[in-house]
Structure to design on (215 residues):
């Protein structure tokens, strides 16, 4: 069966956004910047760090400065989140069901590799994935389709035979731009905040293999 399921990580495998918010609040408070929750929802969730930092600091953050600031913020996130790693309900069981039905699976996240290693390591996910990509592995971030096209290539599955699980506007657009089917995970946003998806879920507890196979 030459089919694949590719997961984003934040908000899709684990509900990490509250902990990213805590890390960013600490980070920005040191710089006397105090974003509201509405601003976080609009300009943080599903965005890459270059965009987030540039938006809230009010100037273009790039190059070595971006690397240093990103390292500081993501270090704060890992320090906070390492004690709270917990998959979205039903995820591990759903992943087991996919593997038992011979689906290829992968992760394609905009997060840094160290974040992926923390979560995938804690949940013992690496043995189950044939493809793993983090922010360091691409030149263009979501909504560009690069990370999903690279994933399909590594999985040796045509894009139109891949189903992507995403929770953000830019992530859904990246998958659609890659020509893939998309399941919207409503962990951080409502349906009205996302481009049209092929299926929507709150979590994985009631998701059947047949629903994914039909896509």
């Amino acid at each position: 069966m030459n089919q694949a399921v590719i997961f984003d990580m934040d908000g899709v495998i684990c509900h990490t956004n509250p902990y990213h918010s805590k890390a960013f609040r600490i980070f920005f408070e040191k710089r006397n910047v105090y974003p509201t929750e509405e601003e976080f929802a609009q300009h943080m969730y599903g965005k890459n760090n270059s965009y987030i930092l540039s938006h809230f600091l009010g100037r273009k953050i790039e190059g070595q400065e971006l690397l240093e600031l990103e390292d500081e913020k993501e270090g704060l996130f890992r320090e906070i989140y390492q004690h709270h790693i917990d998959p979205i309900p039903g995820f591990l069981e759903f992943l087991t069901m996919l593997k038992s039905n011979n689906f290829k699976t992968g992760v394609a996240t905009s997060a840094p590799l160290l974040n992926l290693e923390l979560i995938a390591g804690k949940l013992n996910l690496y043995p189950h994935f044939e493809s793993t990509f983090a922010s360091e592995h691409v030149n263009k971030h979501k909504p560009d389709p690069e990370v999903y096209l690279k994933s399909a290539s590594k999985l040796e599955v045509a894009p139109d035979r891949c189903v992507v699980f995403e929770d953000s506007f830019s992530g859904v657009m990246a998958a659609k731009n890659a020509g893939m089917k998309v399941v919207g995970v409503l962990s951080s946003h409502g349906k009205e905040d996302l481009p049209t998806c092929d299926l929507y879920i709150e979590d994985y507890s009631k998701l059947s293999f047949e629903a994914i196979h039909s896509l």
Observations:
- The longest strand covers residues 104-108.
- The radius of gyration is 17 Å.
- The mean pLDDT is 94.
